[in-house]
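Me: I hope this is not a bother. Any chance you could explain this protein sequence and its structure tokens? It all follows right here:
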Amino acid sequence: MSKVQITDVVLRDAHQSLLATRMRLADMLPILPKLDAVGYWSLECWGGATFDACVRFLKEDPWERLRSLRQGLPNTRLQMLVRGQNLLGYRHYSDDVVRAFIARSAANGMDVFRIFDALNDLRNLRTAIEATKEAGKHAQGTICYTVSPVHDIAGFVALGRELASMGCDSIAIKDMAGLLTPYATAELVKALKDAVDLPLHLHSHATAGLSEMCHLKAIENGCRHIDTAISSLAGGTSHAPTESMVAALAGTEYDTGLDLIKIQEIGVYFYQVRKRYHQFESDYTGVDTRVQVNQVPGGMISNLANQLKEQNALDRMTEVMAEIPRVRMDLGYPPLVTPTSQIVGTQAVLNVLTGKRYQTITNEVKRYLQGGYGKPPAAVNPTLQQQAVGREELIDVRPADLLPPELERLTEEAAGLAQSEEDVLTVAMFPEIGRQFLEQRAAGILEPEPLEPPPSAGPKTAPTEFNIALHGETYHVKVTGAGHKGRPERHFYLAIDGVPEEVVVETLDEVVLTGGTEGAVKKAIAGKRPKPSKDGDVTASMPGNIVDVLVKEGDAVTAGQAVLITEAMKMETEVQAPISGKVTGVYVRKGDAVTPDEVLVEITPGA
């Protein structure tokens, strides 16, 4: 069969690449009938970062999103992205959790499971593939494409053969960074087609401006399934435009048979929708040929830019981009895709901002070097491995083999909040934000982050940027958003001297109600932490959140002892005591947002 089939990624990877995964279900529902009528092979609409964004930012139940999409797309396959043993989170889960997650996803309407592992360690795909087949669904084994001294066509073909032997229904080439070139695509597709008797799918991001050419070369060499994005959410770090590929193949033996006019109507709809999310647009989502050198996926670039901007260090982006390949080499050339892109990227940022390579090592880098994510493609830097892991035993088996069943424990821990098995799995994926989501849902106070009005909106009814003088100090305040009026507690989103803050104003009387912004500002400033000035002041290396506080006031600590665990860019880091002494101040609690220019814990020597 010569006809080319299309998977449109507009409901998942397109807005994940360009709009920080912020598109809401309410903006998807109106267009579903037209999407369903096109005749796509599938619509990618779930998985990846969507689950996280739903719970963390949009305050939507991701399972309800899936059910709504299933109802609205009765004639189209639904497709999701699964990170193998990591599922949709950032750690490996036990086999019983993986099987339960796949089973419930299938029961709620998912048809095609694109399953990958960031290291191409196929041991980490086995359970998810088996669970998909047991559910009677389409298991798509995935090869993460990358370029390095240890990756070649023969190695990718070997992966393809093994995926076929594992029972996969099709094989996807996942070019998450847009590294494929047209002739490399032709060679790879031809070699896989000759070796494996399974349908091939090509997923290639447009970051380097080569995706349309890569698709055409893939098609000419036997690939009959390509991923595209509707034109208004295509290009750059997203994908080749759907309309362009349909037009390019029309009238040829590869004609998709899709109606270009119908698809263009969908493009016009999303052109308007995209405007609602203008605050999430990034300067780093256009064509960027540097990816062919630094291999940094577009979504990773925009995340790095946001992190550096929060620290007034955006001018150091070039240094970070140069450091990423060095960190990747030290870690044995992993493909840069979630979670390895975050692992490598965060460590590179730390190396640059601290001024000394590996002075601070994230917990995930330690786990990676220990073997906790699987087998790296090449040998890791032995000196770095020794520094990070020390005398702890290295893991040389499938990491999940060391994990006992945990679904029963998770169910017990979620008792009282979870109303279904799906709720338990939400907490399993993201323990802190998942539990917070269920608590807010139970209290009826789920409230998505605010969308900023377009720049052309009408006159402002109140100042949103001003200076506040308080106790002899002046603070620059910008109000970036506010929750709904009329509730006893109202959320305000501020930037105080450039530091993002979320505060809650509790209404006590009408004065507070009418002066809510000022009350929010005072509350935020009152909680401001001291500036670092002494050797014993413990600070964070980069903006993030407190995952755990390991000490209390009065504790004796030694230099190098872990006193806090912070999270930034979804990676955890132990913050260690800079000196030995007694803890004389703890200025943070679990869940607090922190920045590098404030004291989190105070240690007094010899106290």
In short: The two ends are 78 Å apart (CA to CA). The longest strand covers residues 473-482.
